[in-house]
Amino acid sequence: MKILFIVRTDVGLGNHIQSQAMAISKMGHDLYVLCARIGKIERTKEQCPEITWIDAMTFNIFGFAKKIRAHLRKIKPDVIYVHSSWTNPSVLLSGSLFAGIPYIYHTDDYLEPKLYKIYKFLEKRFCKKAIFVVSNEINRARFMCSEYALDQMPIIVPVALSKSMAPSEDVSRNFRKQKKKTVDLVYAGGIGPDRLIHKMILALGKLPSYFRLFLYGRYVNVEYEKKCKMVIDEAKVQDRVVFHRPIPNEDLLQELMKYDVGLLLYNDNTLGNFYCQPQKLSEYLACGMPIVAPHYPGMELMVYKFGIGAVCDPKSPESIAQTVVSVAARSEVERQEQFLHMRKIFFDNIAYENEVAPLQKAFARMDDSNL
User: Fold this and answer.
1) Per-residue exposure over 110-140, b if at least 16 CB sit within 10 Å of its own CB, e if not
2) In sequence order, what are the beta bridge partners of 35?
3) Where are the beta strands (DSSP E) in the chain?
4) Which of 62, 89, 228, 296 has a CA positioned 20 to 30 A from the CA of residue 309?
5) Which stretches of the chain score pLDDT less than 70?
């Protein structure tokens, strides 16, 4: 089956699109991925050379719609795989839904009832007409099913790093052999109030001076950048907080090997945040790091079920600091044991290959129906 996978994002800055594309290709389908930017995905291309990656070289809604239209004529797909609500406007403008081509709809997010009204209006209609819908978390899927009055529950496939994209055992061990005098905390992702970066910084101020915080990402706006700088001064941690611009996911995974504890703090201001299971969870574990996560039901269950860290009140710097101390390794032996455990949990339980069976079954049913 010939499939055109459409997503309006830079696939090199995250692993989830690459993991999903590789899984679909390995089912034996002829896959074309049209994205706004390809970025750096050399390992994925090596692992799965059968995928055809198409760089639209534009994030513009209208420009991307034009690219979709052109490649629909060129590829003549049997099925369209529409990924994320941010892609929907371009797909609609391309006219592809009126061409009679069946499509699958996949979302790794949840659109709140009173937010993003236009995107939500479009998403409901995409879900209604799709062959099937894919969501990344059970509670988000339930809300979607209820709000959109869907005939069937979305398929649940959590976002996660593929085993083939994880740092190799040799690379991992070499990093863990390095002796350290500091405890280095890391966060990678959007730097904004929903990720409670300012609380991380305040927590750092309550930790001993050998704790440091490294942030990889881009500020969501100038106002929050100013707030973080004020908080850094307030906490007196100017020489202990290091900011890095976003880097390709392949490079980021190598960088993450340097760190000791991964931070995944989310505000509880939306249902999507409250029921989150972010892709960074799998990345941190693949790099051998324990995590500090918010004490929300989904994350708390994951953390304690697999013994991969601890949870805290993400709005309390005191709670964050205490939790960081509780998970940080106290010796080189403990650090090595932590590393081995986190890697084992990743490969045995969390990696994308462990979660993809529902998607494989859905594709098998679709193949049997002779679409």
Assistant:
1) bbeeeeeeebbebbeebbeebbbbbbbbebb
2) 7, 55
3) 2-10, 30-37, 52-55, 79-83, 103-106, 133-135, 155-156, 183-188, 211-216, 241-244, 261-263, 291-294, 309-312
4) 228
5) 170-179, 370-371
At residue 177, the pLDDT reads: 53
Per-residue confidence (pLDDT) for residue 176, from 0 to 100: 55
Asked whether the beta carbons of 64 and 36 are under 8 A apart, the reply is: yes
Do β-strands 103-106 and 79-83 pair in parallel, antiparallel, or remain unpaired? parallel
Q: What's the CA gap between 347 and 282, in Å, rounded? A: 9
Q: At residue 39, what is the residue type?
A: G
How many other CB atoms sit within 10 Å of the CB of residue 165?
Answer: 22
Could you read off the pLDDT of 282-304 as tens digits, one per residue? 999 999 999 999 999 989 999 99
d(CA 180, CA 166): 23
Asked if residues 183 and 211 have their Cβ atoms less than 8 Å apart, the reply is: yes
Query: What pLDDT digit, counting tens, does each position of 84-98 carry?
Result: 999 999 999 999 887
Tokens of 177: 């052999």
Beta carbons of 65 and 37 less than 8 angstroms apart: no
Which candidate, 293, 224, 223, 249, places its Cα nearest to that of 160?
249
Burial class (CB in 10 A: 0-12, 13-18, 19+), 193: middle
In angstroms, the Cα distances linking 318 to 148, 280, 294, 308, 323 are: 41, 23, 13, 21, 9
For residue 53, give both structure tokens: 């990656």
pLDDT of residue 368: 79
Sequence-distant (≥ 6) Cβ neighbours of residue 70 within 8 angstroms: none
Query: What pLDDT, on a 0 to 100 scale, did the predictor assign at position 342?
Result: 96
Given a contact cutoff of 8 angstroms between Cβ atoms, the answer to whether 289 and 342 are in contact is yes
Among the listed residues 4, 3, 9, the one whose alpha carbon sits nearest the alpha carbon of residue 57: 9
**Nearest alpha carbon to residue 92 among 64, 51, 55, 133:** 64
Cα 252 to Cα 27, 38, 361: the distances in Å are 28, 16, 32
